[in-house]
From TrEMBL:
Pfam families: DAGK_prokar (PF01219)
UniProt name for this protein: Diacylglycerol kinase
Keyword Cell membrane among record annotations: yes
Native organism: Arenimonas terrae
GO MF annotation, one: ATP-dependent diacylglycerol kinase activity
Gene Ontology biological-process entries: phosphatidic acid biosynthetic process
Length: 128
């Protein structure tokens, strides 16, 4: 519902479609400029069917696939942080470096989460 200032568009199928298009534009931009995102998508395309096959039930499949989707989400957010920091200026600033390092750390932690989830679910089954 629009407020008296008109700052919010009314909820409508058109608004939902526009939000979808903006999301696709963001994914495309991430794909175009981030080689790590492309690699993670390639890994997802290979590992998601494997997760569907190896997961014993819906919960295991959701954890295996969901952990990989989490990496993609965090990589998009990290790319957004980097774009904003780079837009601010090319000179080195301690806070800018810290923001980029923190974004990288978030991706690293998401990657570790994938390894832990896959290891805890599939490790006992296939190592025994």
């Amino acid at each position: 519902m629009a407020d008296s200032t008109g700052s919010h568009a009314p909820r409508s199928p058109f608004r939902a479609w526009q939000a979808f298009l903006w999301s696709m534009k963001g994914l495309r931009a991430t794909w175009d400029v981030e080689s790590s995102f492309r690699l993670e998508v390639y890994l997802f395309v290979v590992l998601a069917p494997l997760a569907l096959w190896l997961g014993a039930d819906g919960v295991e499949r959701a954890i295996l696939i969901g952990s990989m989707v989490g990496v993609l989400v965090i990589e998009v957010l990290n790319s957004a942080v980097e774009a904003v920091v780079d837009r601010w200026g090319p000179e080195h600033h301690e806070l800018a470096g810290r923001a980029k390092d923190m974004g990288s750390a978030a991706v690293f932690l998401a990657d570790m989460n994938v390894l832990i989830c896959w290891g805890l679910i599939l490790g006992p089954r296939y190592l025994n």
